[in-house]
Design goal:
By secondary structure, the protein is α+β, with helices and mostly antiparallel strands. The chain contains seven helices and five strands, in the order αααααβαββαββ. The chain starts with a helix and ends in a 9-residue tail after the last strand.
Length: 286
């Protein structure tokens, strides 16, 4: 039986019992209601409500258990998906470093060895080609670092965010300010990873879409939470029209019990705010 009809049937049964009690019971109400009759009616209403609540509770308990189990399965599934995504990022980063990076390095060395053998007229073109290969190698290394933030694993969240903002400042025209409160509590590794990925996605969106002149990344504590904020003065957007990147941030934040809020409006800048609980097994913020 569907839940809706089950609730209808329970309420109907309770009302029928109440009707039978009124018809068959020795209770009557005078033309002018007295206090004792009000008490009887109130007691009858309370009995109806209590009976209804008990019946609904017994009937809906299996549904509550099913919902709890579904929530647990969903959480476990999301955690596995996050772990699989990070594992795939690590694999791609390793391949970029070991294969593409090595091939570009070999090309650079080969071009350097060829330079003395090339006529003077062509050396300038060869130098430009070598510079292009070096830029490609730098790009590959930067992408690999973004896919696998080794600094997060080695030095912790604070150092990883510092590296992230420094990298952003080197490659984009917007001025970036970093404000990290001292003495922050340590966070579990999964939580640190979510905070880092949200900051990374927020800065990426700023670089691609906002046209901002100033960006501020802040990390501080509020009560039992550590809060990340990434704010810019760019073009802004309608949050209701969020894309896959913002939905990905929402999904990641839920995996660690975080609360992600995005405040934006056209021509009014954007603020991404993530609050995560600072509980559980943790390491120093570093």
């Amino acid at each position: 039986m569907r839940l809706y009809w089950k609730v209808v049937a329970i309420n109907g049964a309770v009302l029928c019992l109440a009707l039978l009690a009124l018809v068959l019971g020795p209770v009557s109400v005078s033309r002018r209601t007295v206090g004792s009759e009000v008490l009887v009616l109130a007691g009858g209403l309370a009995a109806i409500l209590l009976t209804n609540a008990l019946l609904l509770r017994s009937s809906l308990t299996p549904v509550d258990r099913l919902l709890d189990r579904l929530r647990e399965e969903l959480s476990a599934s999301n955690a596995k998906a996050l772990a699989a995504q990070e594992a795939e990022r690590h694999r791609i980063a390793q391949e970029l470093h070991d294969e593409v990076g090595q091939h570009l390095t070999v090309i650079l060395l080969g071009l350097k060895q060829l330079e003395p053998q090339v006529p003077e007229v062509q050396r300038r073109e060869l130098a430009l080609l070598r510079e292009s290969a070096r830029d490609g190698l730098d790009d590959v290394r930067r992408v690999a670092r973004r896919l696998r933030p080794g600094v997060l694993e080695d030095l912790g969240l604070t150092s990883a965010l510092a590296s992230l903002t420094n990298d952003f400042g080197r490659h984009h025209s917007a001025a970036v300010q970093r404000v990290i409160a001292p003495g922050l509590p340590g966070l579990p590794h999964d939580t640190e990873l979510v905070v880092y990925r949200v900051a990374q996605e927020a800065l990426t969106n700023t670089a691609r879409h906002s046209g901002a002149e100033r960006v501020t990344l802040s990390l501080f504590r509020v009560g039992d939470c550590v809060v990340l904020e990434v704010a810019d003065d760019g073009a802004g957007f309608e949050p209701a029209r969020s894309g896959a990147g913002l939905r990905g941030m929402q999904e990641r934040s839920r995996l660690v019990g975080g609360d992600l809020r995005i405040t934006s409006a056209p021509r009014a800048g954007t603020t991404v705010r993530l609050a995560v609980p600072c509980t559980g097994a943790a390491r120093p913020a570093g």
